[in-house]
Amino acid sequence: MNIKSPVVLRPHHLLCIKFFVGRGYSEEFTANMYKIIADLNESDSVKIAFSADALCAACPNFLGKTCKTQEKVCRYDKKTAELLQLDDGKTYSYKELKARLEEKIFSQNKFDDVCRDCEWANICHK
Length: 126
Ligand code: SF4
Prior knowledge:
Blueprint: E1 7-9, H1 13-18, H2 27-43, E2 45-48, H3 70-84, E3 91-93, H4 94-106, H5 111-115, H6 121-124
Parallel strand pairs: 1-2
Antiparallel strand pairs: 2-3
């Protein structure tokens, strides 16, 4: 991938990336996560997609077009996008999005409103 290209991400994956500690759904998923984080840090560019993204591409829960836990992940996307004021298909600076996470979710104590019922919550919502 051209490192100048934006990384395509669904909204709630900004949160998954923030709390990534080297664990994931599979070895392939985890390796892809490391690559995506490196790409984000180099390109500083994120294209928001309200659908499958660069992380889903290497996930065992990805069913081709949708996620095995589609209702849940779409709910997380909707809430994250609402709080961060993100538009589908729009490109943002990754640094700016990280600042928005702090300003509009963590400092407002809204993280639990997004994804408290996620199976990884014992890592992120400590
Ligand atoms: S397929 Fe589902 S569980 Fe896997 S990365 Fe995408 S949204 Fe997350």
